[in-house]
Every structure is written in C-alpha cells, then in structure tokens.
Design goal:
- The complex is a heterodimer of chains A (520) and B (89).
- Chain A is an all-alpha fold and 520 residues long.
- Chain A contains 21 helices and two strands.
- Chain A folds into two domains: 404 residues, Sodium/glucose cotransporter (Up-down Bundle); 115 residues, no CATH class.
- Helix content of chain A is 70%, strand content 1%.
- In chain A, strand 1 and strand 2 form a beta hairpin.
- Chain A is globular and about 70 Å long.
- Chain B has a domain of 41 residues.
- Chain B is 57% helix and 4% strand.
- Chain B contains three helices and two strands.
- Chain B has a two-stranded antiparallel ribbon.
- The longest helix of chain B has 23 residues.
- Classes of the chains: A mainly alpha (520), B mainly alpha (89).
- At the A-B interface, helix 5, helix 6, helix 9, helix 11 and helix 13 of A face helix 1, strand 2, helix 2 and helix 3 of B.
Chain lengths: 520, 89
Amino acid sequence: MTQLLVIAVYLMLLLGLGLFSNRLSRGTSQDYMLASHSIGPVLLLLSLFGTTMTAFALVGSTGEAWQTGIGVFGMLASASGILHSACFFLVGVKLWSFGRRYGYSTQIQFFRERLESNGIGLLLFPVLIALVIPYILLGIYGAGAVIQGATRGLLASGDGLPSWAGAGVICLVVFVYVFFGGMRGTAWANALQTLVFMALGVVTFVLVAYNLGGKPSLLESMQAATARLLETEAGRAKLTRDTIPDGVYAAFLLIPLSVAMFPHVFQHWLTARSSATFKLPIVAHPIFILIVWLPCVLMGTWAFGAGIQPPVDPSSGQPNINLVLAMTVNRLGNPLVEGLLTAGILAAIMSSLDSQFLCIGTMFTHDIVLHYSRREKFSDRRKVLLARLFIVAIVAVSYLLSLFPPRAIFSIAIWCFSGFTGLFPLVFAAIYWRRLTKAGAAASILTAMGVWAVLFYRSNFGLPAPGKPPYRFPEEVFLGVPPMMPAVTITVASTVALVLVSLVTRPPSEPTLAKFFPAR
Amino acid sequence: MRKADYVLIALIAILLVAHQWDWGFTADQLFLGFLPYELLNQIIISLAAAAVWWFAAGFAWPRDLDSSITEDSSTASQVADAYVTDSDI
C-alpha cells in the first residue's frame, strides 16, 4: 500500500505541474509545440536528458551489469556521454539555427527545404513514425509491468494492479500534462522527472550498498560488496571489461548517434532560447550520464556477487535481467524505498513518452495536415486544436496497441535504435555536405530501412534461439570481415548509398545551397 | 576552420581512442578498495568528455548561429508548412 501511495502522490504532482504550466501558455501554436523558443539552459539540460534516458538507464543498466560486469559502463554510458553531446553540438545547434531562421517545427520541414523535395517528406514520415512507435509501446508496456510488480499483493488474489490498468493510468497522466501543457508542460515535467530519477537512483544506491556490504560505513560496505566478487572466477570477470569482445565494444559507439535523428529530441532542440542555451546541456550531459549509470552498474555487479539470481525468461531461456534491480531493492524490505524507486523508474519512462506523444502530434499536424492543406484554413488556435486532437488519437492508439504487445516488443524497440543510427549519415550530410541530393537522401533512407528489414528478418525478428548470442552480420567471417552488430552494417550501407547516389545526381539549386551554406 | 576547431577534433579523437583503449586492468586493481580501475578509467573519460565539450562551448562554438534570426517565426513556420516543390508530388 505504501508503494501505491508513493506512486499516486508522484503522479498527482506531475498532473499539477502540467496543469500549472498550461497557465503559463501564450496560447499560440508556437508556444504549444515549441514553448515559443523560450527554454533556458537548465531546463533544456534537464528536459533533453530526461528525453534521451529511458527506463533502460536504471533497470537495463543494472541488469546488463549483473550479466556482463562493469564493462557495460564504458560500452553504453561513457560512449553516450561523448557522442550525445557530439550530436547536440554538431547537429542540434545547427538544426536549431535553421529551425529558428526558417520556422521549422519538425525534421521533415528541414529536409524538404534542404533537399528541395516534397517526396523526401513522404518517404521519411512513415519511417520516423515506424521507428518511434515501438519505442512508445515499450514505454507503456514497461510502465504497466513496473506498476504491477510494485503493487504485488495489493489485491485479494495476491496479484498487483493489472498491467493494462497501470499502463492506462500512466498514459492518462502523460496525456493530461501533454494535452494541456504542450511543450512547456512537457519540458517542466521532464525536468522534474529527471531530478526525481537521478536523486532516487543515488539514494537507492547508498541503501543497496549498505545492504549488500553489511558494514557500518558506506566505504566499508562497498569494499565488502566488491570483495565478494573476487571470490569466484565469474565474479572476477565482472570487474574487468574482458567479458565484452573488442569489436562489440567498438560497434556500440554507433548507437548513441541515433539521438541525432530522434524526432522528439529535434523538437526539444528547437525550444532553446538561443544557441548559447545549448552550452550547458552539451557540457553537463556526460556528467549526468555518469551520475545515473555509475550507481546502477555498481549495484548490478554487486548483485551478482551477492548471489541474486533472476528467474529465467521462458521466451529467451536466459535470466530475466530486467528484474535484477527490483530484486536487489526488495532485499531492503523497505516499501517506502521500493515505492520511491518505482516512481523513479516511471519518471524515466514518462520523460520519454511525453516528448514522443507531443512530437508525433506535431508531425501529423505540420507534415501532413498543414502541409497538404490551404494554410489560410487554419488559424493559430485551430493548429493547437489539431495538434491536441492528434495527441488524443496517438495516446489512444498507442495504449490499445500496448495491450497486445508482439512477443518481440523488447527486441523490436532495441532494433529501432539501429534504424535511427542508420539515418544519422542523412542528417549529418544534410548539414555539412553541399553535394547531398534528394536522390542520395532517398537512397540512404531506403537502404537503411531495407537492410534493417532484411537483418531483422534474418535475426528471427530479434529473438535469438535460447542460449544463442544476439544476431550479427555477416553471420560468419566473410572476406576477412568479422560478424558485427546490425547497426554497423546498416550505417555503412546507408552511407555508401548516400554518397554514391548523390555524386551521380543533380545537387540542389544554388539559392537553396546559399540558404543552408551561407558564405562566411 | 579555426585553430580551435582543429584542437577540438584532436581532443575528440583522443577521447574516442582513450575510450576504446584496453589497458588490461585486472580484477585485483581496485581504487579505494572497491572501484575497479577499468571503471575508474571510464569515469575519468566521462569527466574528460565534459571538459572537452566545455572547451568546444568556450572556444570552438559555431559562429553566426543567432545573427540572422530576426524573422517572425510564426510567419516562417507557415512558409515551411506550405513548402512544395515543382517536381515531385
């Protein structure tokens, strides 16, 4: 009951914040979708960080560390610290500048003008939607599962709140503050949620360290927890990065580049008050990742040493590592902490969900309805109404879809990151390469999605047979090329297609090039 | 490109090499008796990344980003909505 109360109080707080931010709204479509480009550095840092971090930052990182050891920090966290900021610096600031200058609200508006092509929008729109939807479904589905787990024993049958009910409550809360608060409400809610999951992560870490180490001081407890790992060969391996092949470690450098093509991150970039607003998020992002990931990686590794063993997931035949954090926290026997941690995990989920709902609403409004209608038909007030109606529809459809998740929902969502990574060459070339053509861009998108689809099919839809490692391509060493993560193949193929086709087709007109590459 | 841009490219390259470099730390090498050296190494790289991006923000920041933003953004937005080209509908 304590856990349910903590979750309820947290959700009420979010609702209050969303409704309050509605009072700050200027009532325009620019304010609803882009907060009138008024967001300052601290809010941009917190909202961007909350948007890019999902529940994986807490739950997945702990489970991966339990399975693989401390090497996951370098492979997933510090790599993101370097490359997310690189994306903000090299892509975000430039797109913000174009967006402010030429009035964009979506990525597709930029690509249409940069490539002088209406068709590129028609091609990119379904691709972006198809890549974001599984990400949304995973969030909703995950939220339902988290609440169900946290409220176990609440009902007379001993079960927790049904997953569909928990997911419905989360959808409703996110819907209310996005619907009423728009981007301003989303940014404030994300900021709150970022602070919540960062703070609760650190608090949980300290309590878990004491619990697992069992010593009077924090340092002694941490030493004892680590010492337990030194007692076995398997435990010792977790304290090095020897468990991760060098090729896999290197290939993971590509995954953080996906951030540059997330449509919801693009929308957050456009909320910045000025280009200088980006400086704080760019500098502080690696430190924020450190603050969130380091405690989770240590907890996961120590949990292995403490003998915590998650049950086997029947679909994969592997331990369900997503349960490691919950099992570790359950050892504390403190419902308040469990409730707070649940609130932290929900915060991480919702801080991505809200931006995704808003961005899809914005994309349907701008890229489809307004783009293909007579613009004088739509007053500013009607644009806001339209965006809100789309948000209603998207939340409803997403929730209904989440009730029937495909068996491979987790792997589909993970594969979507590879799809976004495959689109990185497109956005980078659009900003820095004058010679990019619309045919080259189309070839790059089609190649990325084609290779993605073939590899996904070959991987048994992302579900390796029990006991088998994740899918790699080539499947065996081919002409000296070792098996690699799909993201590498997809990105290389899309880059080659982009360059080759661009070089043999007609570049954009001089006025367009002058617009996007002004003479210094 | 400015000198600072070259310095930034070099710093990012060093950061990526350092990130990938396997120093071969063993399980027994622990900082303060609990933190594996490999993890300490990656913590330092995260902090170094923040320092490199601080350099970028201070010395290699792109120029002319805000200079021509004078147009009323709602008008520009309507233009972006209406953008249609000749050839490819």
